[in-house]
Design goal:
The complex is a heterodimer. Chain A is of the alpha/beta class. Chain A has three domains: 214 residues, FAD/NAD(P)-binding domain; 110 residues, FAD/NAD(P)-binding domain (3-Layer(bba) Sandwich); 105 residues, Enolase-like, domain 1. In chain A, a hairpin with a 3-residue loop joins strand 4 and strand 5. The longest helix of chain A is centred in the N-terminal third of the chain and has 25 residues. Chain A is globular. By secondary structure, chain B is of the alpha+beta class. Among the domains of chain B are: 101 residues, Beta Barrel (OB fold (Dihydrolipoamide Acetyltransferase, E2P)), CATH 2.40.50.100; 201 residues, Chloramphenicol Acetyltransferase. In chain B, the strands form six sheets. In chain B, strands 12, 15, 18, 19, 20, 21 and 22 form a seven-stranded mixed beta sheet that branches. In chain B, a hairpin with a 4-residue loop joins strand 7 and strand 8. The chains are: A alpha/beta, B alpha+beta.
Chain lengths: 464, 451
């Protein structure tokens, strides 16, 4: 038995570390259990290092199109090793940042694998196998997720790889089949294609980025095809033969079976939760379909035990985990936080063009029974987009015809990931279209497109 | 509906294209909600083009004519967007009734002439702001409230689950779910703008069913003024909790005095004396005695009016009703009041009242006696909190206590004062005491006074 804490957080990802810092701010004696790098997947193997890779790809693309902007560059080449090294460096820096924040907030870091135990205890097994038990008034489980594996696409981490390996390959593959076109699959498709790998992107569903609005999916499909990615929708990888030098990938399409050869197959078919072996059964914490069951303040069925992030229902996104962590801790500390509105969570995909969206898609809004007003503003009509040479994409907004509620926004184009927060804030403040039309947007910016799209929904668009 | 007049109908152009117009010279006649008025030209110049025809309904701010001003480039004459929020809180509602003096602005580069605002108006505006900041409702909540005819009072009953108890969209929608269906049809229509709430009750559209028209029945379209009156009446009923008190007054002395002095008034002062200015004088005195009758309600705030402006309901020849306002009535004597009453009555009947003359009342008087009624239960003119109906003067046998003869029956000129007041803020005690005081002033009228 060791020190007693007010709060122990298992996992230091964007859910766990944010919860810990907020708890410390609110005066709770807090410790975090982490088996690997501080910051979790997000900082080390997700959001941040992939953005570093994508930036390299984008810079490379700029150099290739430099002549379009009146700049002559001798042919640029990719140093794949340096690209990966930069990405790792960025991740490391971020992880160190967490270390600093923990120190600043007097949060203890307990290295090792944590398991919840009855009696509000956490057993931590360190690298050498030694076990220590810690006690706390409250325990937050924030163990996150990992790549999902399909039975016919078992990772061997050499030829069939997951996202981790995909960002640390020793050498750039000549060709690659990516299975799954969600954010992870699409971002890697863009990255590898941009740096010269021959990419085939396979999606089981009828559209790329299937969670996005159909118009966005179609635009991405056009953009990807134009940039040379082989896009296969309505398709399924049935078998991968890794015996030879290359992989032979069997893909079932509605036209029949097709064989594609490649160096590596990247499985990007979603994430699964890390809920095994962490003591849930010992304590009696209830789960459902691989997720821990919690209430709106993230309490599990067992008093004193909480769960946040990827292991609970809701979008498996870093910012969701952070928001959940803060709400959970504030509730523990006796504040009265507002429960999270899962319909107002923005989602971003950092391909080129970027994708950003929040709220209902057109289809979902109709299915939910709304009568809707839809406005769309293409970046071809935007001065800033023209000047930047980034005319691909559009902003699409969806309003409830009856009350004017902003039901959703879907954007694809340059910098749109930086624009979506406006929509989230406006929706949080329960703004109607009228206020957006009357909100003066700076000219020339890409963000004008939000105002114009809204004006278009109400038949008042100026620049179309 | 908003805080201002949104549109106006062009009655007639007083100048033709190609004609020269001097600044301040009447350029056109427009009709707004209740008042028809002339609009003067902003600048001197030659009219190059009239952009709107007579009979057109034009939006405030829309260009209606182009005047080539002396030596300057062609400018578009616009109807000015009424200057924002320089009015008293009371006016926000009042402005519904009247049009702002439409002035002009010119092209975009021109500065809009600032409206002169008195210090007093500016200071009352602050009060306005404070009272409005009490409750915040999001644009979406306001829109839903408007669509579903949820009044401010009703909104206030909803328990908010948002930050600091703020009523969220979900709260309103949940409330709508369990709200009794019937209520939706009788509730007032809340128009809420800019985070503030202005209450306007209107007969709800959904309640309007196709009337059964039988053969021989005549269908008459309500004119603009009648529609507005209809809306205002229902609106006021929804805003105020109307209650009534009645007092009978012996006005024999007044009748006698009027008979005595009316010739003198007409010959020497050039004023036809009626009873109305006498009643106004009594009401003004009573308002001075009971300043809490001279108020208006704004959200959870009561605004005690410094000035006493008496609205006077006047029937118009077309059967409609207008309420000119005698401003600062406490500063006029009977002669002054009589002059104003006569002038207003005349101009009201000839449709010549100016927008400024039908706004800002703080208390209202209506004379139901002129049509033979003994008493009435008038509807309050918003945002006032009281209205006094003056009944017909009739000779009646009444019991009078006299020291010499004890109780005697005498024939006296009697009149009933009917007081409608807003029970939200005026209880029976004040409402009754006030009208009783008016009666006392009438009854104890000094019939020896000259004027």
């Amino acid at each position: 038995m060791s020190a007693k804490y007010n709060l122990i957080v298992i996992g230091s990802g964007p859910g766990g570390y944010v919860a810990a810092i907020r708890a410390s701010q609110l005066g709770l004696k807090t410790a975090v259990v982490e088996r690997a790098e501080l910051g979790g997947v997000c900082l080390n193997w997700g959001c941040i290092p992939t953005k570093a890779l994508l930036k390299s790809a984008q810079v490379f693309e700029y150099t290739r199109h430099a002549a379009d902007y009146g700049i002559n560059i001798k042919e640029a080449t990719i140093d794949f090793g340096a690209v990966v090294k930069r990405s790792r460096g960025v991740a490391e820096g971020m992880s160190k940042g967490i270390q600093f924040l923990f120190k600043k907030n007097k949060i203890e870091v307990i290295k090792g694998f944590g398991r919840v135990q009855p009696g509000k205890k956490v057993e931590v097994k360190d690298e050498k196998g030694g076990k220590t038990v810690y006690e706390a008034d409250h325990i937050i489980i924030a163990t996150g997720g990992r790549s999902r594996e399909l039975p016919n696409l078992k990772l061997d981490h050499k030829k069939i790889i997951g996202y981790r390996k995909a960002m640390t390959l020793e050498k750039q593959p000549e060709s690659m089949v990516i299975v799954g076109s969600g954010a992870i699959g699409s971002e890697f498709a863009y990255f590898y294609n941009a740096i010269g790998t021959k990419v085939t992107l396979v999606e089981f569903l009828p559209h790329l980025v299937p969670l996005e609005d159909e118009d966005v999916s179609k635009q991405l499909e056009r953009s990807f095809k134009k940039s040379g990615i082989k896009v296969m929708v309505n398709s399924e990888v049935t078998k991968v033969d890794t015996k030879g030098k290359k992989c032979k990938v069997s893909i079932k399409t509605h036209k029949g079976e097709e064989q594609v050869e490649c160096d590596v197959v990247l499985s990007a078919v979603g994430v699964t939760t890390n809920i095994e072996g962490i003591g849930l059964e010992d304590v009696g914490i209830a789960t459902d379909k691989g997720k821990v069951i919690v209430d709106k303040y993230y309490k599990t069925n067992m008093p004193g035990y909480y769960a946040i992030g990827d292991i609970v229902k809701g979008q498996a996104l870093a910012h969701v985990a952070s928001a959940e962590g803060i709400i959970c801790v504030e509730k523990i500390a006796g504040l009265d936080p507002e429960p999270l509105d899962y319909n107002n969570i923005p989602g971003c995909t950092y391909t080129t063009p970027e994708i950003a969206s929040v709220g209902y898609t057109e289809k979902a809004a109709k299915e939910a029974g709304y009568e809707i007003k839809v406005g769309k503003f293409p970046f071809t009509a935007s001065g800033k987009a023209s000047a930047a040479g980034a005319k691909e994409g559009f902003v699409k907004v969806i309003y409830d015809a009856k009350y004017g509620e902003w039901l959703g926004a879907h954007m694809i184009g340059a910098n749109v990931t930086e624009m979506i927060a406006e929509v989230v804030a406006a929706r949080k403040l329960e703004t109607t279209g009228h206020e957006i039309i009357k909100t003066v947007h700076p000219h020339p910016t890409m963000s004008e497109a939000i105002m114009e799209a809204t004006a278009a929904a109400y038949g008042e668009v100026i620049h179309l | 509906m908003g805080e201002s007049v949104m549109e106006a109908t062009i009655i007639s152009w007083l100048k033709k294209e190609g004609e020269r117009v001097e600044a301040e010279e009447p350029l056109l006649e427009v009709a707004t909600d209740k008042v028809d008025t002339e609009v003067p030209a902003a600048e001197s110049g030659v009219i190059t083009k009239l952009l709107a025809k007579e009979g057109d309904v034009v939006q405030i701010g829309a260009p209606i004519a182009i005047i080539n001003t002396d030596g300057i480039e062609t400018k578009e004459l616009k109807k000015e967007e009424p200057a924002p929020e320089i009015s008293e809180p009371a006016e926000i509602l009042q402005e519904e009734v009247v049009s702002p003096q439409p002035t002009e602005i010119v092209s975009k580069t021109e500065t809009i002439p600032p409206r002169v605002v008195s210090f007093q108006e500016t200071s009352t505006q602050k009060v306005d702001k404070v009272s409005h900041s009490m409750a915040f409702y999001s644009p979406l909540v306001r829109k839903i409230a408007k669509e579903e005819n949820i009044s401010l009072e009703e909104l206030a009953t909803i328990a908010g689950t948002g930050k600091s108890g703020r009523v969220t969209k979900n709260d309103v929608l949940a409330y709508l779910e369990k709200r009794p269906k019937k209520e939706r049809h009788v509730r007032s229509n809340g128009t809420i703008t800019d985070g503030r709430i202005h209450e306007f009750a209107t007969a709800e559209k959904s309640t309007v069913t196709t009337p059964l028209i039988k053969e021989g029945d005549e269908v008459i379209d309500m004119d603009r003024v009648r529609r507005i009156i209809a809306d205002r009446m229902v609106e006021s009923r929804n805003i105020s909790a109307h209650v009534h008190s009645f007092v009978e007054a012996d006005v024999t002395r007044i009748v006698r005095w009027k008979k005595k002095v009316q010739d003198h008034f007409l010959k020497d002062l050039g004023v036809k004396l009626t009873y109305t200015p006498i009643f106004i004088e009594a009401v003004v005195k009573a308002l001075q005695d009971f300043p809490m009758m001279n108020i208006s309600v704004h959200g959870n705030k009561i605004i005690k009016k410094k000035r006493i402006n008496i609205g006077l309901a006047v029937a118009m020849p077309d059967g409609n009703l207008i309420v000119p306002v005698i401003k600062n009535a406490d500063q006029l004597n009977i002669v002054g009041l009589a002059k104003m009453v006569n002038d207003y009555a005349y101009r009201a009947r000839h449709n010549q009242l100016k927008p400024d003359e039908v706004r800002d009342s703080t208390y209202t008087i209506t004379n139901v006696g002129s049509f033979g009624s003994t008493m009435g239960t008038p509807i309050i003119l918003q945002p006032n909190v009281g209205i006094l109906a003056i009944g017909v003067i009739e000779k009646k046998p009444v019991v009078i206590e006299s020291e010499e003869y004890g109780d005697v029956i005498a024939i006296r000129h009697m009149m009933v004062l009917s007081h409608s007041y807003d029970h939200r803020v005026i209880d029976g005690a004040l409402g009754s005491l006030f009208v009783k005081r008016v009666g006392e002033y009438l009854q104890n009228f000094d019939d020896t006074r000259v004027f």
